[in-house]
Amino acid sequence: MNPITMQLVADKYIRMALEEDIHSEDVSTNAVMPSCRRGDVQLICKEDGVIAGLQVFARVFFLLDEKTTVDFKVKDGDAVTKGQLLGVVTGDVRVLLSGERTALNYLQRMSGIATYTHQVAHLLEGTKTRLLDTRKTTPCMRIFEKYAVRVGGGCNHRYNLSDGVLLKDNHIDAAGSVRAAVLAAKEYAPFVRKIEVETENLDMVREAVEAGADIIMLDNMTPEQMAEAIRVIDGRAETECSGNITKENIETITKLGVDYVSSGALTHSAPILDISLKHLRVYE
């Protein structure tokens, strides 16, 4: 995540998270630390995984006090192990205490997604199939969660509704048919945008191909149905399979030769990676 993106987009969400947690004051911290004292605290990993979100973690403390410094021992994308020292945060002890939970919430969540994505992506190694995320993200966390997917070795599907054309079942119902939906999208959308259509059976696949869809999503189909759909498409469109794809069942489709597999589980079902701030020191 580059500095421009951080300041233009991410900062507003980080500020919202801080305001949610602090609101008017941090009563506990102000009670035990009524004035500024310098100190530091260690960032410790408590289980094996892939780290992601270090810049966001540091930004939480910087927004509270720009004099705060963070000395990281790792970088985003690194494999980390239980007990490993990931970094040291130094600054006003009040800032370290008040920013702790918000900073860890981001880092744990993003690292959990990166870890889970890495596990799933590993299962696709050696195939042509690319792993995609979805828009099934936590509200106001999409920029962070999709970044974590990339860190873990996945790729991003469209970022939001303005980012591309994906005609799903309700769009098709609204238009009246697959063909009508594709033709309407071709007429409305700029020519530089690809048109993807979600299909649920072979009749829809045939209609999408004949209408000139660029990408055809095979949604909730059996491996046998997907194999037949790929034969029908015959290279005339890119293929994506979707629908309850997890690391437990993804191997069943790796031999089919689809171009993409999208999984909402990357963002909506990844457990957090357990990380803590420990061993706070207050300088004399």
How would you characterize this protein structure?
With 284 residues, the protein is an alpha/beta fold. It has two domains: 3-120 and 271-282, Quinolinate phosphoribosyl transferase, N-terminal domain (Aldehyde Oxidoreductase, domain 3, Alpha-Beta Complex), CATH 3.90.1170.20; 124-268, Aldolase class I (TIM Barrel), CATH 3.20.20.70. Helices cover 43% and strands 20% of the residues. The chain contains ten helices and twelve strands. The chain has helices at residues 3-22, 27-32, 54-64, 93-123, 142-151, 169-175, 178-188, 202-211, 223-233, 265-268, and strands at residues 38-45, 49-50, 69-72, 79-80, 85-92, 130-132, 165-167, 195-199, 215-219, 238-242, 260-262, 275-282. The strands form three sheets. The chain has a six-stranded parallel sheet. The model has no long low-confidence stretch (mean pLDDT 95).
Termini separation comes to 37 Å
Structural category is: alpha/beta
Uncertain regions spanning at least 5 consecutive residues: none
Instruction: State the helical fraction.
Output: 40-55%
- What general form does the structure show? elongated
Mean pLDDT over all positions = 95
Superfamily (CATH H level) name of the largest domain = Aldolase class I
Q: Helical region count?
A: 10
Sequence of strands across the biggest β-sheet? 6-11-10-9-8-7
According to CATH, the fold-level topology of the largest domain is TIM Barrel
Oligomer: single chain
Order of helices and strands: HHEEHEEEHEHEHHEHEHEEHE
The profile of the biggest β sheet is: 6 strands, parallel
The value of Rg in angstroms is 23 Å
CATH class of the largest domain: Alpha Beta
Total number of strands: 12
